[in-house]
Amino acid sequence: MDFSINDFYQLDVKSQKVLRSVLKMSKSTSLSFINEENIMNADKEVLSNIILSLVDVAENSMQFLKSAAVTMEQLRSDQLSNQNSVIKLQSDLIKKQDELKLAQFDLNNNCQQMGNKLETVVKSVVKENQRQKQIVLFGVSEESIDLGGTVNDILKCACGPDKPSVKDFCRIGAQKPGKTRPVKVCFNSQEDVQTTIRNAKSLQHSEKYGKVFIAPDRSPEERAQRRELVRLLREKRQNAPEKHHYISRGEVCSTEHYLATTQLCNAPSPVRVNLDSILKNQFRMLEEHISRGMDRLDASVTQAGGI
Asked: What is the pLDDT of residue 91?
């Protein structure tokens, strides 16, 4: 039978009823007063009914106790199972807490790394933006007392009276005897840099600043690429001197010398000879100027420690 609290109440009612019958039979007010004489004087039929009732109560009590024992065992088993479940949940919770701490640690590290990378990228962008507003002057004499006046004079010679305004300037690198340090010049905009670079070739006609070379403020990667281009340019000049070699848009380009003279092949011989002589001189002067400019740039870069 299934154990229930209602069965317990019913068994209690039956027990109380039997006990009242016993007290009535023995004519006693308490079970402690009942003795053998009381029972022997009792009516046999009444005694028989009481005994049968006691047997029924005892049988019901045994069934009740067995059911209660099964139920208690089931409860104990459920309690153990629940305890195991609680222990497992606690273990899982501790494991999840450890995983959460590890994930939080990784997240903090990732955030820190991302912050460092972002800071590096921002600094790089700011630096690149600043570099695009700067130029480098090579060949400016170290003997110049008024460097600012010299810089402005060079820009005026290159760009004319409407030269860009200089925001700042400084020498690059440590001063060493017999070496000329480049001068970094900062403008207010990239347009000022483009204007200066575009008019830099005007310095080649200046007696005072003909040896000054103006270049963009390049990054270390760009400087390495430029040095490689200069090396390739010299190599091509040495291997193919009959051609004109120059750097354009990050490449070393080559063209045939004196293309203009081929267009005059039908002209009288004296005219061709004169034109040939004039063009040869002009091309030779141009090549010499470019070569000197490249040599000065390369020498200045070496002196400045890889600028």
From this structure: 92
Which candidate, 255, 250, 244, places its Cα nearest to that of 290? 244
pTM summary value? 0.47
φ, ψ (nearest 5 deg) of residue 13: -65, -45
Strands 213-216 and 134-138: antiparallel
What lies within 8 Å, CB to CB, of 168 at 6+ separation is 185, 186
- Asked if 60 and 14 count as a contact pair (C-beta separation under 8 A), the reply is yes
Q: Which residues of the chain register pLDDT less than 70?
A: 1-3, 257-307
Rounded Cα distance, 203 and 157, in Å:
7
Calpha distance 14→22 (Å, rounded): 13
State residue 302's pLDDT score: 53
CB 71 within 8 A of CB 4: no
